């Protein structure tokens, strides 16, 4: 079997420690014998031929702006080419706020984090026998708690509670020919390194890969 190819692109708002988080994902994928290219420019998405050979794209880019010449090769790689896309927190769920097609691909968009960074909350699994979640078990996080607008077509794997509202935390979906994995945890690198988050991301990265 040929080696899987992954592209990790980091940047945007520095408060989410994008370079450090990208390094964590690089380590996870290299442990799984992926060939990983790491970039800190959105111009990496301009190369249609390169993207056609990538099996997984991992964006770690909060807010910012993306040009059409960068966005649409990315969109087409996933939707038409079947390249997988996976990521976490604002690095994928709060990127490029004006780009509704990107949000449609992701399956949701951040809108608020009441209480900011010091909120204690439980992550509960909806399908604890499913391969993406089996054996991890519900766990507590002290971090930002993301309230998101979400696509009703997503497949929800984990949730948290906002009063009487059950808010998706981990989901999967398809976007054309590609698979999409998102996890709203990961405000900073220490949350990504939590054993539960790390294992969820490892499984999600592998699952989304073409």
TrEMBL record:
<feature type="domain" description="ThuA-like">
    <location>
        <begin position="6"/>
        <end position="208"/>
    </location>
</feature>
<dbReference type="InterPro" id="IPR029010">
    <property type="entry name" value="ThuA-like"/>
</dbReference>
<dbReference type="InterPro" id="IPR029062">
    <property type="entry name" value="Class_I_gatase-like"/>
</dbReference>
<protein>
    <recommendedName>
        <fullName>ThuA-like domain-containing protein</fullName>
    </recommendedName>
</protein>
<dbReference type="Pfam" id="PF06283">
    <property type="entry name" value="ThuA"/>
</dbReference>
């Amino acid at each position: 079997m040929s080696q899987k190819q992954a592209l990790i692109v980091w940047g945007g708002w520095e408060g989410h420690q994008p370079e450090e988080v990208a390094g964590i994902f690089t380590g996870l994928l290299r442990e799984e014998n992926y060939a990983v290219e790491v970039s800190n420019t959105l111009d990496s998405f301009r190369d249609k031929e390169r993207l056609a050979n990538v099996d997984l794209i991992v964006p770690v880019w909060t807010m910012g702006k993306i040009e059409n010449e960068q966005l649409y090769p990315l969109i087409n790689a996933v939707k038409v080419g079947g390249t997988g896309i996976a990521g976490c927190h604002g690095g994928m769920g709060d990127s490029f706020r004006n780009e509704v097609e990107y949000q449609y691909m992701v399956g949701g968009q951040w809108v608020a984090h009441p209480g900011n960074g010091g909120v204690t909350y439980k992550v509960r699994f909806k399908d604890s026998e499913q391969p993406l979640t089996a054996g991890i078990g519900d766990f507590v996080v002290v971090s930002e708690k993301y309230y998101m607008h979400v696509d009703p077509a997503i497949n929800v794997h984990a949730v948290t509670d906002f009063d009487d509202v059950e808010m998706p935390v981990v989901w999967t979906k398809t976007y054309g020919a590609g698979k999409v994995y998102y996890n709203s945890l990961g405000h900073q690198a220490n949350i990504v390194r939590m054993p539960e988050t790390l294992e969820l991301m490892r499984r999600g990265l592998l699952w989304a890969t073409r």
